[in-house]
Amino acid sequence: MSGRVWQAWCWLAVVVGCGGDGRGGMEVALDTSETNDAVSVLDAVETADTGERNDVRADVSEGLPDDVSEENDVSGEAPVGGWLLAFHTCDPSNPSKPCGNPMNHQVQLAWSADGERWELVPGWDAIPGSVPDVIRRGDKAYVITAGGFLTRFDLVSGRALAAVQVRVDGERARFVDPSWALDDEGRLVIVFMDGGPPGADPARCPPGEETCVKVFGSATEIPGSDGEQFLRDSGSRLEVEIGNGQTASDPDVFFDGERWVLYLSKGGVTVYTSKDLRGTYELNESLPNGVLATSGATVPCGERAGTEFWTLGHWNEGGINAIRRARHASIETPLQASDFKPLFDTQALGLGRVNADSPGLAKNQRGR
Hints:
Blueprint: H1 6-12, H2 40-43, H3 57-60, E1 71-73, E2 83-90, E3 106-112, E4 119-120, E5 127-128, E6 133-137, E7 140-145, E8 149-154, E9 159-161, E10 164-165, E11 167-168, E12 171-172, E13 175-182, E14 188-194, E15 211-221, E16 229-232, E17 238-243, E18 249-255, E19 260-265, E20 269-274, E21 282-283, E22 291-293, E23 298-305, E24 308-317, E25 320-328, E26 341-342, E27 355-363
Parallel strand pairs: 11-16
Antiparallel strand pairs: 1-9, 2-3, 2-27, 3-4, 3-5, 6-7, 7-8, 8-9, 8-10, 11-12, 13-14, 14-15, 15-16, 15-17, 18-19, 19-20, 20-21, 20-22, 23-24, 24-25, 25-26
């Protein structure tokens, strides 16, 4: 997986009167037609009489098979080496399917041998979903989307399992903005933001509160569950106090070879680090207020690529949201908007002129 959240929450919580264009008090000038959609799965499915949650698979991922154990044949050839990139798309020219509604988003999976020339992963069929992240373990790509919906794609056979909702401590996921990691034992770890109260924008303080604390936690895979079952790790990875009108959301975690790095969207890209994946993340004080970038990209993700860092996010260019990347030597020096360059053209990928948002980047290596 910032100020992009409000439209999704208006849809999600069925709130009437969001007003205006849904920009929701942005701290930086960008198009928020793509929103912090992960939260949409959490509240749209409250039943009015009991408050119980229905199976949200149909709500957030319209069209997914009812039998979540069924395999879908998406045969193709597996990419080898390089990079995997998950992102979601939406056609902003279609007024009947506004991009502020996460149910209109499609999750794409692309790969590149060198990070320069990108193509869609052979055999991958776009799936309904939003705010994705991807990681590879063995011969599978694990794609997680809003509210913890997991699609496993076999990179060798070219087959995908239908989506399931992961469970944490035996319960359906109540987190937003999930980010993948692998620990030293080869277990999947999810870093996330707690979802907050139903109907409220999770990136902001609940209505009536001038200040609040946003809690970011993690959960570790139960061995043998193949990414379906997790136990919440003790403590929190990060707690961020914000005031009225401020936001904090979209954690992204990666290892830079020496420490774990956590990007957070707070109107820009703010950086925290920890020696341990499940440790407490501290603000990177080498940067002014920990801020790596204030413009050029939002909803960030990052990776270490050889001797340099890659920081990705999306930004509006000419009325279209595009994924952009900055290549930089360290995370100790602030980036400028001009450091971010378009990563690819969606039309060249065969997707048409569409919004491309919320990138999740991973090395295409087998891992443990």
